[in-house]
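Propose amino acids for all 93 sites.
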């Protein structure tokens, strides 16, 4: 499951549009590749354990971990646990 949206963030007197992606990867599955263009994306693992692959790197991730994906880079998420992996990707627009 994937859901994407833009959110308006207000901090004090300033406002900015941020982009938020929510992805749930089924147990034992590899999610579709995502590409980050024109911005970096911070991927936050909300649930489960898995692997994030980007560039030539493979990172094991667990609930609470954060991974920063540079602009112009594709990444995939694979579930490596007994429950679905739920991630949120957040970036400036």
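Proposal:
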């Amino acid at each position: 499951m994937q859901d994407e949206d833009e959110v308006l963030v207000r901090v004090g007197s300033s406002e900015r549009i941020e982009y938020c992606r929510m992805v749930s990867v089924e147990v034992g599955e590899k999610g579709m590749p995502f590409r980050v263009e024109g911005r970096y994306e911070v991927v936050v693992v909300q649930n489960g354990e898995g692997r994030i692959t980007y560039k030539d790197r493979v990172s094991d991730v667990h609930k609470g971990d954060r991974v920063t994906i540079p602009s112009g880079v594709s990444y995939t998420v694979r579930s490596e646990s007994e429950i679905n992996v739920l991630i949120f990707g957040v970036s400036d627009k």
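The mean pLDDT is 82. The chain has no helices and nine strands.
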